[in-house]
Design brief:
- By secondary structure, the protein is α/β, with parallel strands linked by helices.
- It contains 6 helices and 11 strands.
- Helix content is 27%, strand content 37%.
- It has a 7-stranded mixed β-sheet, sandwiched between helices.
- One of its GO terms (molecular function) is methyltransferase activity.
- InterPro entries: PABS, SAM-dependent_MTases_sf, Spermi_synthase, Spermidine_synt_N, Spermidine_synt_N_sf.
Amino acid sequence: MKVKETVYADQSDYQRIAIYDTEVYGRCLFLDDVIQCSETDHKVYDTAILGKLGSANKNLLVLGGGDGHTAQMALSLNPGLRVTVVELDKAVVKACETYLDQDIYHHPNITIVIDDAIHFMEQTSVGSYDCVVCDLTDMPIGHNGVVCKEFYQKVFSHVHRVLNRSGWIAVYAGCDVEIADDIARAYAHHIEKRTVYVPSFGEPCFIVYGRNIQHIS
């Protein structure tokens, strides 16, 4: 990917944040040198991860997604939706608001919470949401490949309590679908997988959908 200009670059408390103007994909957000979204094709990803969203859904929880694009797309698909975005790094939200001209954070149907995803779900009432989107980074912050599976296990074990019985979850599995797929099969009765090609990512990525999430101790 050819960069024309570095628009913003800084090290937050959690990760390196960079926003570049590129020749092909417009303005792009990178976290720890991994692309998260681009101006030209983020809608491809957003549409895919929200593939199960319908008019009957009322309350969506987005874990991660500090760039605001998933929340923005969700409201365009379902204008009456209430969306809670839980983003660990407030510096990501600020950078996207300033340099990506992201104004969705001020929409009355959007609530932005700066918190750890697991901690937030631990403090949330049972059955509060009918859909959960896990839009976290390819490698969760503070984790390596060895414990990545444990992280997804924690996510699913907490999703069961915040998701109502008829709700669904969509998980961005990056380029390694096996980890998220294995965990999803342990916690959900109905699993679907979708391969999505987002040009700026440079390779296929995977979305795993699950319904009827159950608790497994």
